[in-house]
Design a protein that fits this description.
The complex is a heterodimer of chains A (1009) and B (294). With 1009 residues, chain A is α/β, with parallel strands linked by helices. In chain A, the strands form seven sheets. Chain A has a seven-stranded parallel beta sheet, with helices on both faces. In chain A, strands 5-1-2-4-3-8 form a six-stranded mixed beta sheet. Chain A has 39 helices and 34 strands. Chain B is α+β, with helices and mostly antiparallel strands. Chain B contains twelve helices and four strands. Classes of the chains: A alpha/beta (1009), B alpha+beta (294). The interface between A and B is large, with 106 and 83 residues.
């Protein structure tokens, strides 16, 4: 089962696409791969012969990935050898199409994998497109071997410049491996040069049509300038002008024209202005200073001072000289430009060796306020004192609210977050509280920059007067407890043009705040007696936390790692709520694939509570639904139905709404997200295994579901959090966001010390899966086909028929293609496959390894192909037909840390015993042997000495089928199971016709569709 | 007689030229900067007649087909008039003598502002006065400081051909005031060296890029470290073709299309299509497997 890898090599900047399959650079395989990924733009392109240098043992090239082929065992001396290839030149269209395809992962089609060069190339395309979008390009002219061409040059800003430098360092070797047709030695193309040529090609490819422009015969341009402009946006880029000296003269003019920008572009430095404060003491108390500096583009920590650079013998000068010969000219050009913007610069240039200038406080203020921005916009770097940068967000004048609370403890009854609390107001500058008198004094000073208690700070006169007016008219006021709480957590509210910056309160609200922010412990509870599960200590904490937030009507996001038991903690809360007198039902929304899991877990842990699954075509309409919810404690439904049946859901008064896998609503524009946020309930809980707090953009919708309004409107959130954090890396905004949302997110990881000690070494989980429509009808067909036959057969024949029936049913549950044996596509046709995909995705994200056991070699093969296509990584498969030597090699590969193989499929018979596979801490039993001893033995491949993580065992069971019923029988008879089940599945053949019918019958809740 | 009268008042139209140098200034006065204006005063203060108006028209319609400014030979240009062959025009500003050049270099080196502004496209305000006081003025003040010649039969100087060249030069000075020093015989690089702002380099041109051999072992060869994706999140420019606008038009522009305007269109169009492509890439990234239908 080998794949074809696609690679890109460069030929004077042109990307050349070739394939690596059974052979290197074989045209047939390339065409096959192109068709396989649906790249049609290349269809008409002609191919060309090239040659590439690849690591080889002398005969065959060593495969780039184990997915393509295996390295032969004979260890020969490796070296680079030349291989002829047939390859395709990429143009703008095909390059972009390839980039689009690679966005989705490195497996664009079945059996095809993108090599690292394709993935790398994507970033080049993105940079090129960004340069064009931001218009950071300049037109130019270039002499090629045969003619003069019009061309576009990249003029990257400093961030992009750095990105390009870094990108060059990571260029995959295969990009530089294309040799000239006749060479004796492998190419040694420098990385930076390779990227420079490639970027130039890519840029120009996107700025011109891919097709050749029509040429009108006999047409001549009026002037060389017309010919040049035409050639800039047409294909080919040749300048149709035959007077050579004129072109040469024009090339000179162009470079003179570009010089003012070029000198910045070429310079290894950026020109900086740095403002420093006056010293605290001494005669120079009013003297601020602006210094001229050069900052290295590649290493921003390297800063040279102009005052040293004017002295040719200084170390700084020597250093600069090693990087550029235009240092002085660059400084002068920069200063000349700045002098046009800022008169103080002009003044400084009247003396020799200008190194900066002094300013008084008013001048410094104008610099901070106006010139800094002006200079920045002109491309200079401006370095300002940290207090200035900080205070643009926080250190402004605002209002401080001081609540007048009765010093009541939170145990007092009748307190809700909606109660109104009266308060006093004061003014605050940063963290300093100012009274009315102090404010008036400051207002009299009329200075924009003042030193307040030793710290320089800006006073906005408008804010100052707003604050004055506010305080004069509002000595006291009233706010809701909820508003006070969210302000204390960092939400910003405006009241009559002045920001409410901080609050100060005492009593129960302070107590609540401390508990929320983790400074105080919330009340620890134990699950009720009627709860039939046992909570581990950390689960008890989680359950108590949920109850604490629920008590105050605050939404909670439980984001524990997969496997830590979010379900059980949530169910414990629901149980407690019922016992405290709750009569209304809870609505639980989850992905279709885990509906049965929830039902099963609820039945197990909250045996007294009645559960309603609202799902499937024959689900209830409003009247019945209303009735049924009145008598249910938990209503389970899916995200799909949340949006479809929203009218139904919104008519019910829910006690709470729980979203499992809440990342499903992260996109606020989707219907299901809007539906979730539109529902009303007393409390809300979101469960997720992915760390929402790391994806700023995804946070808003989940938080707005949990605590409406906490993060403001979507627009407000974008302006005040998303954009500053994501675009400008604003740490202040991200700290504020964290303090605002942190109290409502509880995330524990398996690796946390306190959790590890709480966890058992081995956690067994049953993964209840559903049947797809196709599986269900196949299942019925198999049952119908066999039932009559079995009932009329006897003895050995009957036993044989029962075995055959059980086998076929298991195959249906596994996958339709296993039953049909027709090599048909895998994706989306089996409930088990869906669940497996979800689990593997999460496990791979956590960078952990998995063993998958199946009894069927055929299923193992199918899984291997499917998972390889899914993740683009090698999946190992050990079955009876594998030699001992290969087997050992596989185990060794898998056990290596950091190896790319993270998934190991084993046939139960070949891999169930003997091996040591402690690299994995997840074990999946894709199908069941119905013999706990055999399964445990298999599990022990991972769960044994040497394992330093907790092992999670996932047993796949298809609900409503024989799988679920056999599992129940085993669970019930565990004591006798050893005896009864010792002989494998033999006992099943002894069942009466009636029992057999009950066992295999397909029940209602089997299908997920 | 009537015939002659007719000839005198309807001058022959100049022969149309394609691809001549076209002034980018399309109406009103030439010389946008004060130094461009000052250059023109040496022309306009003596003469204010139809020849100058005609010269402006010539400059705008592209009658000047060649124009070269050099430190050695001053200005030499070709202007297409009504005759078959273009006229030859030359304008020479008396070059500074060796000792004057030395003096000028000293003055320029005395304050960094002079060179800084000159090489960043501005004329230092009091430079002319300083040089004049020192005895080596930059602008022509004396009548015989500036000598111009034209091969046309017009007896008057300046004729419309010379005037056309004057106007084009004013436009060139606007964007590069250094050209005035070139006319006086000082080249840019020469001056930078003389004033100590350009250091001679050891070891020739830019350091050559060193060849980088490929790894030979397959582990190293196929190894790849992924970088975080480049940030795609910056907004589109508010002003089109900012860089072109900052640089201004290219000197002695010959196309009848305005460079800045043409570039604005090209930049805007490409920026938009790049944005569309980027959006396609981002939506591709966000595309998730939609949840299975109920």
């Amino acid at each position: 089962m080998t794949m074809i890898a696609l690679h890109i090599s460069l030929r004077e900047g042109v990307p050349i696409l070739w394939s690596e399959g059974k052979k290197i650079g074989m045209l047939k395989e390339l065409r096959l791969a192109m068709a396989g990924i649906g790249m049609f733009s290349l269809r008409g392109n002609t191919t060309k012969e090239y040659s590439v240098w690849l690591p080889s043992n002398g005969e065959t090239a060593i495969p780039s990935s184990p997915l393509v082929g295996h390295k032969s065992d004979t260890i020969e001396k490796e070296n680079l050898y030349q291989f002829p290839i047939t390859a395709l030149r990429l143009n703008a269209n095909s390059l972009f199409e390839l980039t689009l395809l690679s966005e989705k992962g490195n497996v664009p089609g079945s059996g095809i994998i993108f090599g690292s060069s394709v993935i790398w190339m994507r970033q080049v395309v993105k940079i090129a497109l960004n340069l064009i979008r931001s218009q950071s390009i300049l037109p130019s002219i270039i002499r090629t071997a045969s003619c003069w061409e019009a061309t576009w040059l990249p003029v990257p800003d400093s961030t992009t410049f750095l990105a390009i430098e870094k990108l060059a360092e990571t260029i995959p070797a295969v990009c530089r491996t294309l040799g000239k047709t006749v060479t004796q030695a492998p190419p040694e193309l420098p990385k930076q040069l390779a990227l420079k040529q490639l970027l130039a090609f890519t840029l120009n490819a996107f700025l011109r049509p891919a097709e050749k422009s029509e040429v009108i015969k006999g047409f001549t341009f009026e002037s060389i300038h017309d010919a040049w402009i035409y050639a800039l946006s047409n294909n080919p880029p040749k300048i149709a002008w035959d007077r050579e000296p004129e072109i040469e003269e024009f090339a000179r003019q162009l470079s003179a024209w570009r010089r003012p920008l070029d000198i910045h572009n070429r310079s290894p430095f950026k020109f900086c202005f740095q403002l420093t404060e006056p010293p605290l003491k001494g005669a120079k108390q009013e003297r601020w200073h602006v210094a001229y500096l050069l900052q290295s583009k590649t290493d921003p920590s390297l800063i040279l001072e102009a005052k040293d650079l004017w002295k040719p013998e200084s170390t700084a000068s020597q250093h600069a000289k090693s990087l550029t010969r235009e240092c002085s000219e660059f400084m002068l050009t920069a200063l000349g430009e700045a002098s046009g913007l800022y008169p103080a610069v002009t003044k400084s240039l009247k003396r020799k060796n200008p190194s900066g200038f002094d300013l008084d406080t008013v001048g410094a203020y104008r610099f901070l306020l106006e010139y800094a921005e002006l200079l920045r916009n002109a491309g200079f770097v401006v370095m300002l004192p940290s207090w200035w940068i900080g205070q643009r967000g926080v250190n402004r004048i605002g209002i401080k609210t001081k609540a007048k609370l009765p010093a009541m403890k939170s145990s007092g009854s009748g307190l809700t977050l909606d109660s109104m609390i009266s308060c006093d107001y004061a003014a605050a500058l940063g963290n300093e509280e100012l009274d009315l008198e102090e404010l008036k004094t400051l207002a009299k000073l009329k200075a924009p920059l003042v030193r307040v208690r030793g710290e320089w700070t800006q006073i906005d006169s408008k804010e100052l007067s707003n604050a004055l007016r506010f305080l004069e008219t509002h000595p006291t006021g009233e706010l809701s407890a909820r508003e006070m709480l969210s302000t204390a957590l960092g939400a910003q509210k405006k009241e009559e043009n002045i920001l409410i910056r901080s609050v100060e309160f005492d009593g129960w609200l302070q107590e609540l705040l401390e508990k929320l922010s983790g400074q105080a412990q919330f009340e620890l509870l134990t699950a009720s007696e009627h709860f039939t599960g046992t909570l581990r200590p950390y689960q008890e904490r989680g359950f108590s936390w949920l109850s604490f937030l629920r008590k105050w009507g605050l939404g909670a996001c439980l984001a524990d790692d997969m496997g830590l038991g979010k379900t059980i903690q949530t169910l414990a809360l629901v149980q407690r709520e019922r016992e405290m007198g709750e009569k209304r039902a809870v609505l639980l929304i989850c992905p279709t694939s885990v509906i049965n899991n929830w039902r099963k877990e609820a039945q197990k842990f909250t045996t007294e509570l009645s559960i309603l699954v609202h799902h499937g075509i024959d689900r209830m309409k409003i009247t019945d639904f209303r009735k049924a919810t009145n008598t249910s404690a938990i209503v389970i439904s899916s995200y799909g139905l949340l949006q479809r049946d929203i009218a139904l859901f919104s008519k019910i008064s829910w006690s709470g709404i729980i979203l499992d896998e809440a990342q499903n609503i992260k996109n606020p524009e989707t219907k299901q997200s809007k539906a979730a946020r539109a529902l009303h309930a007393d409390y809300r809980i979101a469960l997720t295994g992915t760390p929402v707090e790391n994806h700023v953009g995804d946070l808003w919708a989940v938080m707005d579901f949990l605590n409406p309004g906490l993060l403001g409107t979507q627009h407000y959130f974008k302006q005040n959090f998303y954009t500053p954090i994501q675009w400008y890396g604003d740490t202040e905004a991200s700290t504020r966001l964290k303090s605002l949302t942190g109290p409502f997110i509880l995330r524990r990881m398996k690796t946390d010390k306190s959790i590890i000690s709480d966890l058992p070494d081995k956690i067994e989980m049953k993964e209840y899966c559903t049947l797809t429509k196709e599986q269900a009808s196949l299942y019925k067909a198999v049952v119908d086909d066999f039932q009559g036959k079995i009932e009329s057969a006897e003895g050995i024949d009957r036993r044989g028929l029962v075995f055959a029936l059980l086998l076929k049913l298991k195959q249906v549950c596994n996958h339709p293609a296993q039953l049909l044996g027709d090599n048909s596509p895998i994706n989306k046709r089996s409930g088990k496959i869906e669940r497996l995909t979800e689990l593997l995705t999460e496990i791979r994200e956590a960078e952990e390894k998995t063993l998958i056991f199946t009894q069927f070699t055929q299923m193992g093969n199918m899984l291997q192909g499917y998972i390889q296509d899914l993740f683009g990584e090698e999946v190992l498969f050990l079955h009876g037909g594998i030699s001992k030597k290969k087997r050992d090699a596989m185990v060794e590969t898998f056990q290596q840390t950091g190896n790319s193989s993270s998934i190991f499929i084993l046939s139960l018979k070949a891999g169930g015993t003997g091996l040591n596979l402690t690299g994995a801490n997840h074990v999946m039993h894709y199908d069941r042997w119905w013999n706990p001893a055999v399964e445990n033995q298999a599990t022990d491949r991972a769960f044994r000495i040497g394992q330093n993580k907790n092992v999670e065992v996932h047993k796949f069971i298809t609900s409503g089928t024989l799988e679920e019923r056999i599992d129940e029988m085993i669970e019930k008879k565990t004591t006798v199971a050893g005896q009864v089940l010792g002989a494998g599945e033999q006992w099943l053949t002894e069942l009466s016709n009636n029992d057999l019918r009950k066992l295999i019958m397909l029940s209602q809740d089997a299908t997920g569709e | 007689m009537a015939y002659e009268w007719f000839m005198r008042y309807i001058p022959a139209a100049p022969k149309a030229v394609t691809g001549g140098i076209k002034a980018q200034n399309k109406r009103g006065a030439f010389g946008k900067t004060w130094w461009g204006k000052q250059w023109l005063t040496s022309l306009e203060k003596f003469h204010s007649n139809t020849r100058l108006t005609r010269g402006k028209t010539y400059a705008r319609s592209g009658q000047v087909t060649d124009l070269v400014i050099s430190a050695d030979n001053g200005v030499s240009a070709k202007v297409q008039g009504s005759r078959a062959n273009p006229y030859k025009v030359s304008i020479i500003l008396t070059p500074w003598s060796k000792s004057e050049k030395k003096l000028v270099a000293e003055k320029l080196a005395s304050k960094p502002i002079y060179i800084a502004q000159l090489i960043s496209g501005q004329m230092p305000e009091n430079l002319d006065r300083t040089l004049k006081t020192a005895g080596a003025p930059l602008f022509p003040y004396k009548f015989n400081d500036l000598r111009s010649k034209c091969s046309c039969p017009d007896y008057s100087n300046p004729c419309k051909h010379i005037a056309a060249v004057f106007y084009l030069m004013a436009e060139a000075f606007d964007s590069d005031p250094f050209l005035l020093l070139t006319l006086r015989g000082i080249e840019r690089d020469q001056l930078l060296k003389q004033t100590g702002y350009q250091h001679p380099v050891e070891g020739g041109e830019e350091s050559a890029v060193l060849p980088e051999p490929l790894p030979t072992e397959h582990g190293d060869f196929w190894e790849y470290t992924t970088l975080p994706e480049p940030s795609m999140l910056f907004s589109s420019p508010r002003v089109e073709a900012t860089m072109i606008k900052r640089l201004g038009s290219i000197q002695y522009w010959r196309s009848s299309k305005n460079l800045v305007k043409t570039m604005e269109i090209i930049y805007a169009r490409n920026s938009l299509s790049a944005e569309t492509m980027i959006n396609r890439l981002t939506t591709e990234q966000d595309k998730e497997v939609s949840s299975s239908p109920e």
